């Protein structure tokens, strides 16, 4: 080796040493809450891999598959998920959330739809959900191995004559979201930390038949007047390789139902902001739509009842590995799944430590935003949030998607921005706890104008 070459080699070594830390090892920003950083750091890629492998090993988890076997079918899968949740920590209250669903739509016979629920009680009963569906589907499958055709893009319709016991390993759809949910249950329950909100981790059933398990659950909690702060739903979040060859292990898509100041969009913006602090190497691609084109998932059961909800989707999907026997562990990227789990952990923790979002309406529903005594100011009022030590006011121009300015305003419930027109700017307010954890931003939404029919002589 000649001297210049050796010098080059030495420079290369120095350069490699100075190279940025691998994305997953890159630490949180200095303004991070060490409790949240510790939860994020506790996410285990190895555990995620072991869980997905075990879930895929049940062969199928079709909602209408065998429930008697201890090794194959949805019954074995849900009993294993229950035992896993229970093994993490006695702090988790684990239960089967059973709904006796009658034959309807894609449910071709009466069946018990069984969600597996693990609750980590907080100081307050208001809930932060982390969810994924553990059921799988292979509508073209037969029990004979190796004869399943790849499913086309989009949701294939269920056939009444399909073989519910055909191979449907569902490693990614949605073993990935289920494993993420279970891993966060373990991380939060074993952390020794106390949370303000109650954390609820759910593995849904019946998603592939039309969001049956999540809808039955949402229906029930709405009737019980349960307060839901957020639902972080994860469905297909475990592969970085798209069916078109595109590779992206550095970002995730988050879909949220509009309009622009819906509680779902507020949650999506919140996740993006928290992720930038705790998992800065992972990009968040916010999607201003309910879900991918013509497709859906369990977050829509929550939005149907105005519970704030979003769905995480991997950056590039492989449709040839969905809803068939090819959705296998080999198609997964567990480093990528772990990054998505860390984003969920940061967002769920931040929400659960924070006070509830303030209400920006009166008890009768009137929006508490006015023009001030001068007539050209922004006069904001809000109802106090239990546990808040202060508030932060946000605003943005009326055509932009995300908050542009913010100001900490102390422990008050009204604030005046002189000469800022409420016609040209959108406003919101968040509650901040004594430990700095901040709630979702509640936006002041202009009431919908009711148009009256004009009576005219015909
Ligand atoms: Zn799915």
CATH topology of the largest domain, anyone?
Answer: Aminopeptidase
**What can be said about the biggest beta sheet?**
8 strands, mixed
**What is the number of helical segments per DSSP (H or I, 4+ residues)?**
9
Structural class: alpha/beta
Structural shape: globular
Describe the structure.
The protein is an alpha/beta fold and 458 residues long. It folds into 2 domains: 25-353, Aminopeptidase (3-Layer(aba) Sandwich); 369-443, Immunoglobulin-like (Sandwich), CATH 2.60.40.10. The protein has helices spanning 3-18, 34-41, 45-56, 74-88, 175-189, 212-223, 263-278, 299-303, 334-353, and strands at residues 93-101, 111-120, 127-133, 198-204, 228-234, 251-255, 283-287, 309-314, 369-370, 378-381, 388-397, 405-410, 414-417, 425-433, 442-443. It has an 8-stranded mixed beta sheet with strand order 1-2-4-3-5-8-6-7, sandwiched between helices. Strands 12-11-14-15 form a 4-stranded antiparallel beta sheet, with no helix packed on it. The termini are far apart. Residues 1-24 and 145-158 have low confidence and may be disordered. The chain binds zinc ion (ZN). Zinc ion binds next to loops.
Question: Descriptors for this entry?
Answer:
binds zinc ion, 2 domains, Aminopeptidase, disordered N terminus, 458 residues, 9 helices, eight-stranded mixed β-sheet, four-stranded antiparallel β-sheet
Layout of helices and strands:
Blueprint: H1 3-18, H2 34-41, H3 45-56, H4 74-88, E1 93-101, E2 111-120, E3 127-133, H5 175-189, E4 198-204, H6 212-223, E5 228-234, E6 251-255, H7 263-278, E7 283-287, H8 299-303, E8 309-314, H9 334-353, E9 369-370, E10 378-381, E11 388-397, E12 405-410, E13 414-417, E14 425-433, E15 442-443
Parallel strand pairs: 3-4, 3-5, 5-8, 6-7
Antiparallel strand pairs: 1-2, 2-4, 6-8, 9-10, 10-13, 11-12, 11-14, 14-15
Helix pairs in contact: 2-9, 3-5, 3-9, 4-5, 5-9, 7-9
Bound molecules: zinc ion.
